[in-house]
Amino acid sequence: MAKIAYILLCHKDPEAIIAQAEMLTAVGDCIAIHFDGRAKPAHFRRIKTALADNPNVCFARKRIKCGWGEWSLVKATLLAIEAAVSAFPRATHFYMLSGDCAAIKSARYAHEFLDREDVDYIESFDFFESDWIKTGMKEERLIYRHFFNERKHKWLFDTSFNLQRRLGLSRDIPHDIQVQIGSQWWCLRRRTVEWILEFTRQRRDVMRFFRTTWIPDETFFQTLVRHIVPESEIRTRALTFLMFTDYGMPQTFYNDHYDLLLGQDFLFARKISPEASVLKQRLAALYADDQVEFKISNEGRSLFKFLTAQGRIGRRFASRFWETESTLGRHRELMIIVCKKWHVAKRLLERTREVTNVPATEYLFNEESTALPDLGGIQASLGKRTRHRRALMRMLFDYHDTDRMIVCMDPGDLDLLADFCGDRSTTRLLEIQCVFSDDYLIGHAVRVGLAGEQTSDETLERLLPTIRGQTTFESDKMRDAEFEHHYIMRQNATDEDNAIPISKFLSIGYEQALGIARTDHLFAD
């Protein structure tokens, strides 16, 4: 009978990880966990302590700092596989999971399903001939070397790529490798993962090649399996059910999706909303139930496509009667730096990103040129961003695969600030109160069209008190709104004083906050 070793890559929510591991191992299966090296050490200790006495749980020998699109995800997976192969000699199958996955069939059903055929389940389509990649880079993923994280260091990523292309620094794909592509959610037999581990030791040239490709978790295992396993023993499909919205973002499942999920011809599903507590409880009880029978209808993707085409809300199958506006998510933290001097906020944002590694975006509701990923067009104009602000912000959270994010906003956008502060997520504001010289205010008047190069000194003299009063008025309106988490740092305060609101705003220690407060030339015009 099949015995599954789950390969779990995760980076947050230790309580959910503990519950997931306990549920999967309670029926005799086992799990190898890699907890992201960027995550909080206290969270990892909590997981290890809670699962220390469970003989069916092991951990990767090293925690890798993982980033989307990087080789680090493949490296973390290989470390977890090595740990599982060593710790669980009786495991027959190795099933790739994330912390957002949940079983949608019983353990009995999963074991019987895997026992039916002696095969591997992995999406693996020809990289060049298939249409698996819909937009963006294709060949360029492979023939150029990618050293930087596209999401965290986009300028470096783009500059490196463009420089290589301009200088003709492309490279050949290893001659005996036909690159494949597909979903990273696979289920492989024991001998297959053992062959893969042996391959990684013997073919250093292939390892070097994939190490600098872009998004290798969609090509590495898919290519190696085709290279070492006979075609008759491969089923080109995943056993994890997932859908994508029209914007190319993963569809999230909620409490009212239980019946739909059970009817799909898959063993697991992702992504399950962190707020879908009832769904998680029902699926956990289902996994241990060896009596339940399943009727497979497999209509999920076609039904989703139909309903979204009818104008229903794209991320759900129906609106909830208690909710007229979508939420960012109760579990998420949105941190907003509010400052009239945009260059000051941008300097602080960049320094904060360096210190905390939290995804950050500049004035996305004020500057159309703000660097944003392709989110299906919703980011195309300031008007669209403002109209669909919560959807845009939610998609950015999903894009960065994070529960914490920082953005910059102008204090004049009080309606936007009030909207985000009224969301069920945790929203914090850090207002930066600057000193405004006459020269700066004149420059500001020119930038926003209140004055021009030919405006007389007399006109500017009459205009300055009004502009200065407007900045004071905006700050007063923010205080009058009595936002719950509103912190203030001031240009004329000491670094030591400003470190206190920064610490509270970012939920970090005082010394880290002081390092941010001491950003070079922070308030310089």
Task: Summarize, please.
The chain is an alpha/beta fold and 525 residues long. It has helices spanning 14-25, 41-51, 71-87, 107-116, 140-143, 154-167, 190-202, 204-211, 220-228, 258-262, 277-287, 300-309, 342-356, 382-387, 389-400, 414-421, 438-447, 457-481, 495-506, 510-517, and strands spanning 4-10, 30-35, 57-59, 93-98, 102-103, 120-121, 125-126, 180-181, 187-189, 234-235, 240-241, 268-269, 333-338, 360-361, 404-409, 426-433, 486-490. A five-stranded mixed beta sheet has the order 3-2-1-4-9, with helices on both faces. A five-stranded parallel beta sheet has the order 14-15-13-16-17, with helices on both faces. A three-stranded mixed beta sheet has the order 5-12-11.
